[in-house]
Amino acid sequence: MDELMERETAQLTPVKLSQEALKDLPEGIAGPGYDRASLKPGIIHIGLGNFHRAHQAWYLHRLMQKGLAKDWAIIGAGVRPYDAAMRQKLLAQDCLTTLIELAPGSVSAEITGSMIDYLPIEDGNGALIRAMADPAIRIVSLTVTEGGYFLDPATGGLDVRHPDIRHDVENPTRPCTVFGAIAAALKTRRDAGAGPFTVQSCDNLRGNGNATRQAVVSLARLTDPKLADWIDQTCSFPNSMVDCIVPATGPVEIALARKLGIEDAVPVTHENYRQWVIEDDFCAGRPDWNKAGAVFTPSVHDYEVMKIRILNAGHQVLANAGEMLSVETIADCMEHPLIAALFQKVQQEEIAPYVAAVPGMNPQDYAELIERRFSNAAIRDTVRRVAFDGSSRHPGFVHPILRDALAAGGPIAGLSLVEALWARMCAGTREDSTGIEANDPHWEALAEAAMAARLRPQAWLEQHDIYGDLAGNQWFAVEFSRWLSLIWSEGCEAALRAYTGHEQAQGSLDT
User: Residue ranges of the Mannitol dehydrogenase C-terminal domain (predicted)?
Assistant: First the structure.
C-alpha cells in the first residue's frame, strides 16, 4: 500500500488546514515553499471549482515553488449565490487546497497556495467589478462550464433573449453575468486610462477564447458600442485546451484527506495526468506557465478538437448508458463489457476519423490513452457528474462530430445510439426502475420531450435549441428513431448488443 495511506491508523488527529498549520503538515505532504504573505495578485479567477484548483492554480503553484510568478497570485470570485459556500470554506482555511493525486495503485498529496483571497458574492457584482478594475489585475480567467456562455444554438452568437443577458443590458452597472461584470470593469479601466486585461477561458468549449470574446464584446455592444470596439481592439481572449479529470468532492474525498492527515473542507482529487495548451495572446503579460509544463502554440485548435471529441464526447458516450444501467462511475463503465464495447467502436469508427493528429500524438493513440485514463479505478468520477448538463454537452461535444460524419457520408449509427440513450435517460428512470433525479438546467423540458419521444421519436429531435439543423436531417432521424424505439421496446443492453455485436451470457453483466 502507498506510504501515505499507511498513516491511516498512525495519524490520529488530522491537521486542520490553515496557513499556521503548514508547519505541522504530515510527513510526505509538501506545502508551499514560498512566502505567501509576499504574494501579489495578478489574476482574478471566476468560477472557482475543483477543476481550476487542480489545473490552472496548480500550474501557478509550481511556478511559485520555483521562485517565479509571485506577482500573479489568484483572487477567487463567483457570480452566483451558490459560490458563497465555497468562499466561506476556502477563506476558513486561508485559501489553501489539498490536492490528492490518484494514480493507479498509488496516492500522493500536496498543499497549494497560489490563491490568496476570495471576493464577496454580491448582487450586482460590485466587489468583483472593483477588483477587476484594479490595474494590478492583468488576467481574468474563467471556468463557468460549457453552458455558461449564453450561446444561441440557432445562430452561434450571444443569446440576447436570455433573461440574464436582458438584465445586464438593462442594468450595465449592476450585472448578474460574468460577461456583464467583465464589461463593466473594462469600462472603468478604459475611462481611468488603466488599460485592458486578458480574459482567459479555461472551459471545455471549442474556440473558448473566441466564444469569450464574442460574449463580452456582443454584450458590451448592446449598451455601449464604443466600449465594445475598445474591448475588441485592445483586450486579449486566448484560446486554450485544458485536460485533467477532476471528480467532484464529497464525503469520500473529505475522508480521504483526513486519512492522509489533513482536515480540509474542500479537498480536490485528480488523476495523474495534466495538459494545458494555450494560445500566446496576453495583452498585459502572463506567468511563464510553460516552465511548469504548459504548452504555448498558435495551433491550439487541433489539440482542442482531439481532446473535446475523444475525451469529452467520449464521456457522453459512456455516461448515459451507465446511468441507464445503474453503473456508478466512469471506471465502472469501462469494466462493463457492453458499455466498453460501445465506447471502443464509436471512438474508432465514428470519432477518430474526424480528428487530426497533433505533434507527438495521433487520434488512435490518444483514444487508447483516454481509455486507460477512464479505466483508472482510483478516480471515482460518477456518471451523474459526467452526464450533468447534457443540453450543453451534447451540442458542444457530440453534435459537431455528427455533422462532420453526415457531411462525409460516414457511419453515424453509434453516435445516433448515444443520442437515443440520452433521450431515454431524460425520461427519468433507469432500467431497474429507480428514478433519476433532475440533472440538467433544462430538465423539465428534456423530460417532457423524452416522454413524448417514447411514442414519437422525432419529438426529441424537435428541440431545435439543442439540435438545430440536425433535427431536419432525415438520415440521422431514421437512425435515432430506430435506436430509441429498440431501447424502449427491448432495453439498453439489447441496443448495445445490436450495435457492438457483443454477445454476453445472461447474468454476466453485474456491476
Answer: 300-482
Burial class of residue 359 (count of CB atoms within 10 Å of its CB; 0-12, 13-18, 19+) = exposed
Of 419, 390, 388, the closest CA to residue 403 belongs to 419
Using DSSP's 3-state secondary structure scheme, residue 346 falls into: helix
Q: Report pTM.
A: 0.89
Enumerate the domain spans of the chain.
5-298, 301-500
Amino acid at 421: L
- CATH fold for domain 5-298: Rossmann fold (3.40.50)
**Once rounded to an integer, what is the mean pLDDT over residues 327-339?**
98
Q: Residues 235-253: pLDDT tens digits?
A: 999 999 999 999 999 999 9
**Ranges of H-type helices in 426-461:** 443-455, 458-461
Q: Helix (H, G, I), strand (E, B), or coil: what is residue 97?
A: strand
Query: Of 239, 375, 377, which is closest to residue 307 (Cα–Cα)?
Result: 239
CATH pick for 301-500 out of 3.90.1150.10, 3.30.1050.10, 1.10.1040.10, 2.70.98.70: 1.10.1040.10
- pLDDT of 117-140, one tens digit each? 999 999 999 999 999 999 999 999
Q: How far apart are the first and last CA of the chain?
A: 25
Query: Does residue 2 have a pLDDT over 90?
Result: no
pLDDT digits (tens, 9 = 90+) for 438-459: 999 999 999 999 999 999 999 9
